[in-house]
Design a protein that fits this description.
The structure holds two protein chains of two kinds.
Chain A: H1 2-18, H2 31-43, E1 50-54, H3 58-63, H4 71-76, H5 87-91, E2 94-95, E3 98-99, E4 102-107, E5 110-114, H6 115-120, H7 130-140, E6 149-152, H8 159-166, E7 173-174, E8 179-180, H9 185-199, H10 214-219, E9 223-228, H11 231-239, E10 248-251, E11 254-255, E12 258-259, E13 262-263, E14 265-271, H12 278-289, H13 291-301, H14 314-318, H15 320-329, E15 332-333, H16 341-356, H17 362-376, H18 378-389
Helix pairs in contact in A: 1-13, 8-9, 16-17
Chain B: H1 2-32, H2 39-43, H3 54-60, H4 63-95, H5 102-114, H6 117-128, H7 134-141, H8 153-181, H9 185-193, H10 198-226, H11 230-235, H12 247-257, H13 261-291
The chains are: A alpha+beta, B mainly alpha.
Chain lengths: 390, 292
């Protein structure tokens, strides 16, 4: 999918050479159409043998009973070593105690910040806790007339709020994913902090569509912090002029009290149940999971590898911008593993947007979210109740 | 009798095609709208529940559906008259004898209709850009405050209307132009001899002669504009604050993003009934007017 689909073609000749008798045909999908296409492929009984899958889609395809459990193949494998993977990322592929995917590359959200703006405000290091973060934001200051802000939290993305919410002790859904848990103190704290950043004027109420060029605006100092993912390391290196390169850095996401968790995102490799080539597909999973191949993959795409062994690569170890990601990856947590989660996350973003615009109070927003989640999860409750009865 | 059988044989292929590709899907969708078909049902038909009219009842209680309905109505009420007025204006300009390079202008004004929507949407996004866009540049020159076209919930729908009208007016323009060309010249000649001004010629010759065509264009445009989808899909994805979510966009998200095909079918049928009602009303009006 996306850029990975193009790049993987460069790795495959070696696989075909070392595995005579296996030929690999790659079909590329754009990310925007991938989800639709996979579900249609399932309905039409033309699923592939193996596929790259955003790890938040795993529960959905498991609910469809489309994926082959990989536990047995993993137990027999000498290449895929579960203990070497970042545990939060690995966990996204386990549903109801069984393994359905092997992480291919990882994605999480953390802070991109302007060192020079922080230094001018009197801070030599990035904040580690929410408390410090607020102090830095207050000191960096904001000026709506000059169009200058402390932090950019794009309203069209649910990830910044989700990352803050995953830092809390309470789960986002309760009772085995039957109900939302948004009125719990944990989520209320996260949403409260998120809203506070808008109410104090630190964050502008904007989506990325209205900021035509996030990279230029960051370079120009329109905001000092930006919560984003690993692909932006490459984008900032490419798009900002050389004299601005030492002005920015990455940092792990601050948590309520000290370094906090973030989202366990990324893509996994999954094998489809209806495929007649399970063994061959697993060979390809193993091939792509070797640290040496993952390093080449990183060199080609900039995608971060999911195995600690792959991070031993000198190029990656020397990358100062990737260091914060390495640290953050030890502290990532999966989003709730129910097929309905993407929809609930979208509702979370929409309700938060309403609250940012002052149409809902914090209290009302959390209650509204619990209500929407309850409606979305209705079918799941019915299915679980039936499973217990039957 | 034999002749009748032969006739049935001749129309049978067409009827079969219509049945297979039109009636069967429509009936299937109607049946689906009475169930809660979703990804669980896709996995195992045993997870399918027949829910009767619950999808429809639920729909009418969904605030976003009403919001989408309101947005669509806004689009139709402003967009259709604007679009037809511009089409008619352009057709009249092309029809006057003084116009030079008529073929060129006709092609140029029709061009937006046949260009790819996604490609021109990219260009329009630049025109709408609050900092560098041509529209705001022009407003600035006129001393007017700049507008955040696609980012402000108040302005996003007007921006979509502007874009859609520009994209679609050429189609009606061609139909109206054909209508204008079929008005007999003698009528104008007679009017001129009677001393009618250009405006009165337009008011009392052109408009009445064009009325059936305008009615047709009206029916087609309203039915088409109710199915607003592609413009918000490529320009705003329904945002900001869901101010550009149309009924069809809502249905698309329900069906293809969240895979709730049952409730998506219910949306489709509700919209169908509504468009059907509006069209029937219009036809009734036209008939009543021509009878009067």
């Amino acid at each position: 999918m996306g850029r990975e689909g193009e790049v993987v073609a460069e790795l495959l000749p070696e696989f075909e050479r070392t595995h005579p008798g296996i030929r690999v045909k790659v079909q590329q999908l754009p990310w925007t159409a991938a989800h639709e296409k996979l579900l249609t492929a399932f309905a039409g009984d033309v699923t592939p043998d193996l596929c790259q899958l955003g790890n938040t889609w795993v529960p959905e395809l498991v609910a469809l009973n489309a994926l082959e459990p990989l536990d047995r193949m993993l137990a027999a494998s000498r290449i895929v070593d579960a203990a070497d993977y970042f545990s939060g990322i690995w966990d996204t592929n386990r549903v109801d105690g069984r393994l359905y995917g092997v992480p291919w590359y990882v994605d999480t959200r953390l802070l991109f910040y302007r060192r020079d703006l922080l230094a001018r405000a009197g801070f030599s290091a990035p904040p580690r806790s929410w408390h410090e973060w607020k102090r830095v934001l207050a000191a960096v200051g904001n000026d709506a007339r000059a169009d200058r802000y402390g932090i950019l939290l794009p309203l069209n993305e649910f990830e910044p709020l989700l990352a803050l919410a995953l830092q809390q002790d309470e789960p986002l859904l309760r009772d085995d994913g039957r109900w939302g848990n948004f009125t719990a103190p944990g989520f209320r704290r996260a949403l409260g902090f998120y809203l506070e950043m808008f109410q104090r004027g630190w964050a502008p109420a904007l989506g990325t569509a209205t900021i035509s060029n996030v990279w230029n605006e960051f370079g120009r100092g329109r905001f000092a912090f930006y919560i984003s993912g690993p692909w932006n390391i490459g984008e900032f290196q490419r798009r900002l002029p050389a004299d601005q390169q030492d002005r920015w850095m990455t940092a792990p996401l601050p948590g309520p009290d000290g370094p906090g968790a973030s989202i366990a995102g990324g893509s996994s490799l999954v094998v489809f149940r209806r495929s007649p080539h399970h063994a061959a597909a697993w060979r390809l999973v193993e091939f792509l999971s070797q640290p040496a191949v993952q390093r080449r993959f990183h060199a080609l795409t900039g995608d971060l590898p999911p195995r600690r062994a792959s991070w031993a690569d000198p190029g990656l170890a020397a990358d100062v911008y990737a260091r914060a990601f390495r640290e953050q990856l030890e502290r990532v947590r999966p989003a709730p593993k129910v097929p309905e989660w993407e929809r609930i996350a979208t509702e979370m973003r929409l309700v938060a947007e309403l609250a940012v615009h002052g149409r809902l109070s914090l209290e009302e927003a959390t209650r509204e979210l619990d209500g929407r989640a309850a409606r979305i999860l209705e079918k799941r409750r019915w299915l679980l109740a039936r499973r217990v009865d039957g | 009798m034999r002749r009748q059988a032969a006739a049935w044989c001749f129309v049978a292929p067409a009827l079969v095609v219509i049945a297979v590709f039109f009636f069967v899907p429509v009936v299937a969708a109607l049946a689906m709208s009475l169930t809660d078909f979703d990804i669980y049902a896709l996995a195992d038909r045993g997870n399918l529940r027949v829910v009767g009219l619950r999808n429809y009842a639920q729909l009418l209680r969904t605030p976003l559906f009403w919001k989408a309905f309101g947005n669509t109505l806004y689009f139709v009420v402003i967009g259709v008259p604007l679009s037809i007025a511009i089409s008619l204006g352009a057709a009249l300009l092309l029809h006057t004898r003084v116009t030079r390079f008529r073929a060129f202008f006709r092609t140029a004004l029709f061009a937006p209709v046949v260009t790819t929507l996604v490609a021109v949407a990219v260009i329009w996004r630049y025109l709408f850009n609050p900092h560098y866009g041509l529209l705001n540049y022009t407003l600035g020159r006129l001393g007017l405050p700049s507008v955040d076209w696609l980012g402000d919930p108040q302005w996003a729908m007007p921006a979509i209307i502007l874009f859609a009208v520009w994209k679609n007016f050429g189609y009606n323009m061609i139909i109206l132009l054909a209508g204008l060309q079929s008005i007999p010249e003698q009528l104008y000649e007679a009017a001129r001899i009677d001393g009618a001004s250009a405006w009165r010629q337009f008011r009392h010759v052109t408009l009445p002669m064009l009325a059936p065509i305008v009615a047709l264009v009206n029916v087609l445009t309203i039915a088409g504009y109710f199915q607003l989808f592609a413009e918000p899909y490529v320009m705003t994805q329904g945002g900001p604050l869901q101010s550009t979510v149309s009924v069809l966009y809502f249905m698309y998200e329900e069906g293809f993003k969240w895979w709730n095909l049952g409730s998506a079918s219910a949306v489709a049928f509700t919209l169908f009934l509504f468009i059907f009602g509006v069209t029937a009303l219009q036809l009734r009006l036209v008939r009543w007017q021509s009878a009067a």
